[in-house]
């Protein structure tokens, strides 16, 4: 795998990650808490993307591993700020899943 392929994998995964993260996050959480959850999720998903794309032996290539993980992080933060937040899709997902959880608790 090349650096460009690693970056492309990270960007593809990171672009949709904010929608998955929105399922876990709650509207009443602070901005700082949401950011921590988003960054941790990006790091975890980045590791999974490396393993899925190149197998566990891929971790022997530190540069490619770092490029993929950082690609996921950069793409997730950028796509959230530029696409998912302005489109209101991520906030709507947060609200819907928060309401569902509150109803289940009753």
Question: Keywords for this structure?
Answer:
elongated; 4 helices
Radius of gyration computed on alpha carbons: 15 Å
Estimate percent helicity: over 70%
Overall pLDDT metric: 86
Uncertain segments are none
Task: List strands and helices in order, with pairings.
Elements (H helix, E strand, L loop, with lengths): L2 H22 L6 H24 L7 H23 L4 H17 L1
Helix pairs in contact: 1-2, 1-3, 1-4, 2-3
Account of the 3D structure:
The chain is mainly alpha-helical and 106 residues long. The protein has one domain. Helix content is 81%, strand content 0%. It has helices spanning 3-24, 31-54, 62-84, 89-105. α1 (3-24) crosses α2, α1 (3-24) packs across α4 (89-105) and α2 packs across α3 (62-84). The protein is elongated and about 45 Å long.
